[in-house]
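During the no-cost extension, the postdoctoral fellow (Dr. R.K.) reprocessed legacy sequence entries with the updated structure-token encoder. One reprocessed record is reproduced below for audit purposes.
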Amino acid sequence: MAYEELKSSGITEKTPGNIVLGAGTIHKGLKFDPETKKWNFEESLIGATSGGSTFSITPEITNIDVDGALVKMKGLAVKTGETATIQTNVIELTPELLKMMVVGDESESVDFDGYSEIVSRAQINDGDYIQDFGYVGHKIDGTPIIIIFDNALCNSGLSLQGQNKTAGVVAATFECYAPLTPEGDRLPYHILYPTPAADPSGSGSEGDDV
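Re-encoded structure tokens follow.
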């Protein structure tokens, strides 16, 4: 019969190993120890989330205008920049997170005895950039998908709405920043996933090592 090769879906035997499941977690100072072959997942956790996270990389494409070319043409498209962000919904508000969101300083309050306070700061300091900011998700087979920004800055500010019988959730956006170097032509982000060769059983999972 004609067209017998047509498929009704894109499902293959590899499909389950390529589906990301769950909300994932966000991290600060996410590191991999080459000696122990382990990540510091627990130690680097920033806090609990509600509503998941959204990861976005957007290249900036400039199409060169050439007389006579009435449509976009291959070879005349140039990458002229990019942005990378992780937007997450934080339900666990810690002083550390509050400082990230407002770009402020924390100190013991002089006017309010028994309290610490966070106050605004006029300038962004080097320490405001979060080193090795990471998102960790998992596929159906348990293997992780790890996204790391070498340098990230929270640029969404702080907005919290309190409601009865509802936990307050704050949307926070962390954007990737390049280091201050003469090049400045690409963002230092990393999308990591285990290769099948990393697992002696050949299943593609690293088990307790991930």
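Confidence is low (pLDDT under 50) at residues 199-210. The first strand starts at residue 20 and ends at 27. The remaining legacy entries will be reprocessed before the final report is submitted.
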